[in-house]
Amino acid sequence: MNEKYNVYLISDSTGETLDRIFLSLQSQFQNFKYEKKEFFFVRTEQQVDKIIKEGIKGENPIILYTIVETKLAKYLAKKSEQTNIPCFGVLGNLILAFSKLLNQKAIHKPSAQHVLDDDYYKRIEAIQFTMSHDDGKKTEDLSKSDIILLGVSRTSKTPTSIYLANRGYKTTNIPLVPNQDIPIDLKNKDFKSCVIGLFADPSRLSDIRRNRVVLMQESRSTNYTDISSIKKEVEDSKNLFKKYNWPTIDVTRKSVEETAASVIKIYEIYKKNG
After folding, report:
1. Range of the domain at 122
2. Residue-wise over 136-168: b if at least 16 C-beta within 10 A, else e?
3. For the chain, how many structural domains are there in total?
4. Edge-to-edge strands, sheet with 4-11
5. For residues 175 and 180, what is the distance between their CA atoms, to the nearest angstrom?
6. Among 173, 226, 250, 273, which has the highest number of CB atoms less than 10 A from its own CB?
7. Domain limit, last residue, from 71, 102, 133
8. 139 and 25: one domain?
9. Domain assignment of residue 35, yes or no
10. pLDDT tens string 22-32
11. How many Å apart are CA 106 and CA 232, to the nearest integer?
């Protein structure tokens, strides 16, 4: 399949749920070429008309939507049918099925899952903490972290940290740089936060680093992409993790979600064991 599709993601809220569902969906098709266009907080027929008008002009349009207000969802489906655009409601049938199962009418309220409860504020606090403790910043208050991730460059520390923050975990990530010592607090045997080491296959790291240098048009020393230097970095990092008995995760070819899931499992075991 060589065709390219224009995928329109339409949500009456932040689009977070729809985006995650689409990522899971597209991962099932290896040769699915697409350009994604996202439309958030779509709550009027005028907004729908504008999107449909754009969709008609696009090549091979597909619409996926999460709109819980029945009237607007039907309007979108009708307009899509009139213009021969494939259109799929992600939550509609599921809400209807649950309504019948629970013998309870759905409230059809956009963003109903984003209730401003304690968990919501916990996530916001975790995100703010994690962003301010990215890439080795603010190491003076490491003890406030739920989780601390260490690893050499390009071991997915930052994206994993942000993912964890969105789950409510205050996360600090610290890069391991040749000839630079780790924060002294981490060497304290009584340090309480959960510390986890990330590592990856040196060849994979070399590929990722070379691509980054080209993409960012950076001028770095050859050691940054040199396979021998990277092998030593990874070996030194593993020795460091072993020295302090920190659990490790091999992130080679792991998605951020998979890495984060492993981190959470380790954290839960750590908390359980006190």
Report:
1. 118-273
2. beebeebeebbbbbbbbbbbbbbebbbbbbeeb
3. 2
4. 33-39, 4-11, 61-66, 87-89
5. 10
6. 173
7. 102
8. no
9. yes
10. 887 787 777 88
11. 58
